[in-house]
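Sanity check record (used in CI):
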Amino acid sequence: MTTRIAHAGLAARRMSAEQAAGLILPGMTVGMSGFTGAGYPKAVPLALATRIAAAHERGDKFALRILTGASTAPELDGALARVGGIDFRLPYQSDPELRARINAGQIEYMDIHLGQVAQYAWCGFLGKIDVALIEVAGILPDGRLLPSTSVGNNKTWLDLADKVILEVNRRQPEGLDGMHDIYYGTALPPHRKPIPLLQPGDRIGEPYLRCDLDKVIAVVESDAPDRLGRFAPPDEASRRIAGHLVEFFHHEIAAGRLGDQLLPLQSGVGNIANAVLGGLREGGFRGLTAFTEVIQDGMLELIGDGTIEMASATSLSLSPEGVEEFVRRIDFYRQHIVLRPQEMSNHAELVRRLGCIAMNGMVEADLYGNVNSTHVAGSRIINGIGGSGDFARNGFLSCFMSPSTAKDGAISALVPMVSHVDHTEHDVGLVVTEQGLADLRGLSPKQRARAVIAQCAHPDYRPMLQDYFDRACRDSYGKHTPHLLNEALSWHQRYLDSGSMR
Ligand code: 0RQ
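Expected output for Succinate CoA transferase:
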């Protein structure tokens, strides 16, 4: 077990998770590893939760500010939220316990573009970072760190935190060695230089994380897998969404607006995004690239069969079966995957330069193409904006997808006005549901509304949307983006009052 810790000085700083948790004090800001359920620390947060629960039993206050890469897992977000150990959290979460407490108003949550977290931290907007708690796959003889299945904000937390606690997880495959690319050329304005990345697979940095060894106060050994759920098997709706997109891509190739290999793909989190990737294989594409933040099972399969030749990301968010496949052919995947810090995987400059095709799930879109990715009925958060904004605004093509209804048809995903805006109409090129695809590029607001109603709305809701739009065109204060303000959010209120938007 100790061979994973090849630096003698750091090996001497080994201690139990409980001892390490004892070094984290109430009120501290802790920057943790972890991105979409991959590469999060698995031992110390659990010990910390026990310590916090004991403090609360004694009547002592004990809560932390927790910063991560993105979502983690029950052992981190779930365990700490359950004992009331988090009073501030950023930048993305998907844990049911944590979500419930955020929505109960007990935890302050900052939902922020994932590509901008590092800049926020470096500029001091997040305050002092007391401890970096980082999972790694190993420590080299010279003290450099072999990252694990996600890179996330680890570089930033290691660089900025006063103290560092390392969790060396021997369950993480050693074959990850060589897959990462950690770029150390970032700077703050006005000293920034162009980032020298021209293709998704370019390596512009180093395979390991640097760490000031004097800051390391504990090294904890762990042996536990990333805990990731399974994806829902693609249903009819997601297969049809995928079909519309693939047809659109072929149409764009025929029109000369895309080449046979498309442009680097970005694919978001969730079941729909995962299923859509499966559709690309059936579309007959080969030799594609991806410049994305998360590699889910759907993308791993495309890499595995050559549909995708090269993928850049910050995290491997795989089901247990996906992990098995990844580990079994890790030498192959190392040739086709580069894992980067999230400030690079989601960098506006790179997304714009490469011309990414951004494909993300949504909660709802409105007539004009504004998209809500995060909130139910305007107030209850699901996960967070994640990286969807980094890609939607800067990509070559920005596509949002959802079944046209949710909750067995009680909710329409196409509404007169979104109840929360994550992506404005200016950042949304395509809206796709199982009903069809609305290509909103080059259209005025009223033209967009007609396309959304005709192509995307469910037949049960289409007449209602058409009726709203017709009356808005007649009675709206302005006729550029017609709205009836006293009615625009009435669908959501009706759902809250009666359980249905109908
Ligand atoms: O809830 O499970 O309770 O039924 O939302 O919906 O249809 O399974 O879709 O898994 O693709 O997730 C937007 C959440 C879609 C995701 C979202 C309810 C629905 C269900 C999930 P239940 P589906 P997906 C890069 C990109 C933001 C982050 C992002 C997301 C649950 O895509 O989090 O894009 N995106 N990151 O019932 C009420 C509606 C609803 C609704 C769906 N209109 N009203 N509930 N649901 N539509 C990666 C990262 O950033 C890390």
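The longest helix spans residues 236-254. If this sentence no longer matches the regenerated tokens, the check is flagged for review.
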